[in-house]
Specification:
single chain; mainly beta; 5-stranded mixed sheet; 4-stranded mixed sheet; 1 helix; globular
Length: about 130
């Protein structure tokens, strides 16, 4: 059974990201996924910025195989890892770039964060609810 559509808040940040990515030509992924529009089934989109913050304090996604799309809206280097699962997924972005990966998550509560020195201590972490 395929997981339900991921819910990512706030929507305004997604729209702004879609415009930013569209202006840059988007990614070269031929898998049919794009940043524009509503989140696709099994996709979690997270945006990082130069204020050492993610676009939301919490995210929600259905359990199973999850494609994580990490988008940068600035220039500073950022990473994305899941606490306790650092060896399974580590994405890195800078200079308005994107990175993608897939991770299988069981239902539960997780913490995502940036592991660049000082960024997590500066508040660059968020909650992830997997249902």
């Amino acid at each position: 059974m395929r997981p339900k559509t991921a819910i990512v808040k706030p929507v305004g940040a997604i729209v702004a990201t879609a415009l930013l990515v569209g202006a840059c030509g988007g990614g070269g992924d031929s898998g049919g996924s794009s940043i524009a529009g509503e989140p696709e089934e099994g996709v979690l989109r997270i945006v990082a910025d130069d204020t050492n913050d993610f676009d939301a304090d919490s995210y929600q996604v259905a359990a199973g195989d999850i494609r994580v799309e990490y988008v940068h809206s600035g220039f500073q280097n950022h990473t994305l890892v899941i606490e306790g699962l650092e060896g399974q997924l580590r994405l890195e972005v800078e200079n308005g770039g994107q990175d993608f990966g897939t991770v299988t998550l069981q239902p539960g509560r997780y913490i995502i964060y940036c592991d660049v020195a000082g960024h997590r201590d500066g508040g660059m972490e968020a909650r992830l609810l997997v249902e």
